[in-house]
Specification:
single chain, about 600 residues, alpha+beta, five-stranded parallel β-sheet, 12 helices, 31 strands
Length: about 600
């Protein structure tokens, strides 16, 4: 954490984050988690920590931050713009003169002047001024006036590592039979299914709870049907996960985070690693030897070894790091022969939803003016009290590299629309007693990388109900593809989508879509399996991805018993595969 003259304090490591939240979604490109002042227009409670200084004296201060709305600054009339994410730093109750989050659009070290340190133990406070998404990555103190801390890249990574005193070698947590990356519905089902079959499992999840898009952080319903031929037992585990609640963007308790956490923690063979982000892989030829995962809270790295792995990350992160073949965007009609595919290939994906809702209470609730947000009028405003799945952004943008931009644009449209409804609309009386109750700060993604298996499932496979010898999961959702919806008169990019649906008969996904074609010990379950963009429109709903997880977990148990790899389960042990799926996941043991 320190040396004699320079100290680095990571914001996510504050002892009390107060009303700030830890945001880890963008670690792969900005280098770290950070604290986010997600107050929906109301300043949040201070984040507080104690720091030991080995020396006293005059220290220069930097804060790594950004003006998150600056990419759209040109849209704001001159002289009106004020950065929305402003905050202050207090040292032992003394407020530094600098106001942070006001300078550059990119992540950078904003200089905050000097402070006199007169004692070894000192209190730091992050004081939010707006409630509008201020962000602090780290605080740096140094006696070196000529220090220029690196803003990004490998130099920043090495700078952090040196100041925080991390060892050169990652801590090895041991070897498991099966490592699952991603704790959404697919990851939960894969890890629990394997654990109940006697497999030792490590489940690595980068959030403080499991559930993914179905958690209270994002609040998407479980869609699809379960317990269908050819293996009616597949889906029994999904049925343990609150399957009958089918609404988006509702109060947190309806998503039963506790139920999912309990389901995972009750398995003695399953070891859950929360707030742990996979950002490295060690390989041996076409196999993964281990994954490297960084603690979101402490920054320390750990190594997880196993003979078999599953990528349930949604973004195909593990597969990408291991060199697995993948596709991104839409394939052309010539490539796939699909009638719904575009004539030319492109990088359009289905988007990221940033959902929200309001509540009506006694009294009146004000809301600030938001000149930095998207500006609405009577024609362009959305006269609604909640934002569902179709508040969807980033179609045509890079859902990986531009993910913070996409999420932040969601903030700009939500806050800008709400401010107009409350302050300027002709029907503002209807909104006076309403306040924002929840805005998701975790983006709900639909599509990014799709890892390629021995079979690439296409539209025509579904429409012809093609029979695969390794059919395993029966999907029922329509081919449900999302496209941008124009808003007449809106000067900035759209944030609403429309769904074009094509009905299908139930069809079965082959197991060969659930393992990598070029990484021998990698399986996948979720929206990152081996399907085309068009086919993804029907397999991506979470009851279906949960059943994929059940199958992957059961196959992991076969890999252990037979000392083999996923492809061999299909090629050499197909009858054992079918027997195992017929039995399904064992029921949980009652205590």
């Amino acid at each position: 954490m320190e040396n004699k003259r320079t100290l680095l304090i990571e914001a996510e490591n504050f002892e009390d984050v107060g009303g700030w939240v830890i945001d880890q979604q963008f670690m792969d490109y900005m280098g770290s988690p950070f604290l986010l002042a997600h107050g929906m227009g109301i300043p949040v409670k201070d984040a507080v920590t104690k720091v030991h200084f080995p020396e006293t004296g005059i220290f220069h201060v930097w804060v790594r931050t950004r003006d998150w709305a600056a990419p759209w600054k040109r849209e704001v009339p001159e002289g009106v713009y004020q950065a929305p994410g402003r905050f202050q730093l207090l040292v032992n109750g003394q407020t530094l003169d600098a106001v942070f989050g006001t300078k550059k659009a990119k992540w950078h070290w904003q200089y905050g002047g000097t402070v006199k340190i007169e004692q070894n133990t000192n209190e730091l406070r992050l004081h939010d001024l707006t409630g509008f998404e201020g962000r602090c990555d780290a605080v740096l103190f140094s006696k070196d006036a000529k220090l220029f801390p690196p803003d990004d890249g490998l130099d920043l990574k090495n700078f952090r590592k040196k100041l925080l005193g991390f060892p050169d070698e990652d801590k090895n947590v041991g070897k498991y039979d099966f490592v699952v990356v991603g704790g959404g519905i697919a990851g939960i089902c894969a890890s629990v299914a394997a654990a109940r079959k006697g497999v030792s499992v490590a489940l690595i999840q980068d959030r403080p709870l499991v559930g993914g898009n179905n958690s209270s952080e994002i609040r998407v319903q479980l869609g699809g049907k379960v317990n269908l031929p050819p293996y009616p037992a597949i889906g029994n585990l999904v049925n343990e996960l609150n399957p009958n609640f089918s609404q988006n963007a509702r109060p947190a308790e309806r998503y039963k985070d506790w139920l999912k956490m309990e389901l995972v923690k009750n398995e003695t063979n399953l070891h859950l690693f929360l707030n742990t982000h996979v950002n490295g892989v060690e390989t041996d030829g076409q196999k993964i030897k281990s994954v490297i995962a960084q603690s979101v809270i402490t920054g320390e790295s750990r190594k997880f070894e196993a003979p078999v792995f599953a990528d349930c990350s949604g973004d195909g992160t593990l597969g990408y790091l291991a060199g697995a073949d993948y596709w991104y965007g839409r394939e052309s009609r010539k490539e796939t022969g699909e009638r719904l595919a575009p004539k030319e290939a492109d990088e359009l994906t289905m988007g990221t939803s940033v959902m929200w809702y309001s509540v009506k209470r006694k009294g009146e609730y004000s809301f600030p003016e938001t000149p930095w947000a998207v500006q609405f009028d009577e024609r362009t405003c959305q006269k609604v009290i909640r934002g569902d799945w179709n508040w969807e952004l980033g179609l045509g943008r890079d859902q990986l590299e531009e993910s913070e931009f996409i999420r932040d644009y969601g903030f700009r449209v939500i806050y800008g629309n709400w401010s107009f409804l409350k302050n300027k609309s002709s029907f503002d009386e209807e909104y006076k007693r309403r306040r924002l109750a929840w805005v998701s700060y975790i983006g709900g993604k639909r599509e990014s990388r799709r890892l390629l298996g021995d079979v690439l499932l296409k539209q025509q496979d579904k429409e012809s109900n093609k029979l695969f010898p390794d059919a395993c999961v029966t999907a029922t959702w329509t081919i449900d593809l999302h496209y941008p919806k124009d808003i007449d008169g809106l000067d900035e990019e759209t944030f609403r989508t429309t769904a074009r649906k094509k009905k299908i008969q139930p069809y079965s996904i082959p197991f060969r879509c659930l393992y990598s074609r070029n990484i021998d010990n990698l399986m996948m379950a979720g929206r990152n399996i081996s399907v085309t963009h068009v086919a993804l429109g029907t397999v991506r709903v979470m009851k279906t991805t949960g059943m994929m997880g059940e199958v992957v977990g059961l196959v992991a148990s076969l890999c252990k018993k037979l000392d083999t790899l996923p492809r061999n389960v299909y090629q050499k042990y197909l009858s054992r595969f079918k027997e195992t799926l017929t039995e399904g996941v064992p029921a949980k043991k009652e205590k």
